Amino acid sequence: MNILYLCHRIPFPPDKGDKIRSYHQIESLGARHRVHVATFVDSAEDERHVPELRGRCASLCVDRRTARTNLTRAAGALVTGEPFSVACFRSSRIARGVERVLREESIDLALVFSSGMAQYVERADGIPRVVDFVDVDSEKWRAYAAWDRGPLRWLYAREAKLLLEHDARIARAFDRSLFVSETEAALFRERTGAAGVSAIPMGVDLDYFRPTPEPSREPVLVFVGMMSYMPNVDAVRFFVGEVLPRIRREVPDVRFLIVGREPAPAVRALADPPHIEVTGSVPDVRPYLRRAAVAIAPFRVSRGMQSKVLEAMASGLPVVGTRLAFQGIPAGREDGAEAVEGADSLADAIAKLLGQSDERRDRGARARRYVERHHRWSDQGEALDSLLEEVLATRRGSAARVADRPAGARSAGGPSV
Q1: Could you tell me the CA-to-CA distances from 130 to 115, 176, 286 in Å, in that order?
Q2: Residue 6 and residue 14: Cα distance in Å, rounded?
């Protein structure tokens, strides 16, 4: 197949949730098909990876997003009444690149990663179109609106409403819609009544993330994530403020590693050497996972399937978090994961686990086995390829049935691209 692949952020390096998923989709599809990519870069660091991506696809169109262009487009969205998540990904350069590929490359199918990129093929109903929403992103904005008590609350609520309306329209127009978990898929069906909604989970690089031969016996906790992202910021602030003091009553020498780039000022302020370490950007998170005895996921605002949870489990670490952390991962204590609610329950579960080295080792082994069973990228790649082949076959079958009808029974005009 000739596939047009649209994603909102360059998938290199694959070091955060959305980039990890799009990276592996392009890698898997590129092994079987010709993949034409259009995407954005957000920084000079991103631009360094453009040559590598160019070498992995049949063609590439890239545009730069800046804080200034985002602000301008967001201001325009307030006038036009469209979602910020759509307006901020509008680009004449990307539009021209997509038009050229559609005109010159005999595209069989378009795969859109994140609904903000659907605008570039919304009128291209002459080819099959699949959108990977990943999460029900409007629910994230709805949660922000419920959480915030300041002036941003109205903007969050506005985005939740407009984005859900936009995504419902895209789902009706496109051939299939994908989500990262059946939980997200079911919620989207409930919110929109959309049909043709499927789930393909996240995978984990099981060769890269591996258990250490000698699990840590030190009382070290770890949280990994992009530390400017609001749900991550809130999670570690909640943990340090309300959970960690309770754990210290039982485990006085407990230490906490906050690992991830761009730590917000509120995160940097949590540093308290040697008890709390805020690393900032690191070239490799695995040494920090090896130092830890337990990974934590104390989310109070979250959506979808957390890559950081799966990567910790693949590394042979037991994970303790809130139910939100596991909303897309149906794993329980028998799988090395433990979901509890409230600061007291989190502290009790973590303190107990820190005091039981054999239990930690056993849960870590079960966590690894769970990820091996359910989250291999090779399995997810095969599932995506099968789904795209099915969509293409269905569309071709429909076209053949139309072609077989008597001429008078056919509708006038052809599909628009």
Answers
A1: 10, 5, 34
A2: 16
Give the C-alpha separation, 129 to 111, whole Å. 6
Task: Please state the CATH superfamily assignment of the domain spanning residues 2-203+377-409 in this structure.
Answer: Glycogen Phosphorylase B; (3.40.50.2000)
Q: Which residues of the chain have pLDDT under 70?
A: 399-417
- Tokens for 191, please give them: 């919110």
Largest Cα–Cα distance in the chain?
Answer: 82
So where are the chain's domains?
Answer: 2-203+377-409, 220-374
Amino acid, single-letter form, for residue 298: P
DSSP string, 117-148: GGGGTTT-TTS-EEEEEES-HHHHHHHHHHH-
Burial class (CB in 10 A: 0-12, 13-18, 19+), 66: exposed
- Which among 245, 239, 243, 242 has a CA at the least distance from the CA of 258? 239
38 phi/psi in degrees, rounded to 5: -125, 130
Pick one of 3.40.50.1110, 3.40.50.2000, 3.40.50.300, 3.40.109.30 as the CATH number of 220-374. 3.40.50.2000
Please state whether the peptide bond connecting residue 252 to the residue before it is cis, i.e. omega within 30 degrees of 0: no
What's the predicted TM-score (pTM) here?
Answer: 0.90
Tell me what pLDDT residue 403 has.
58
Cα 163 from chain centre: 17
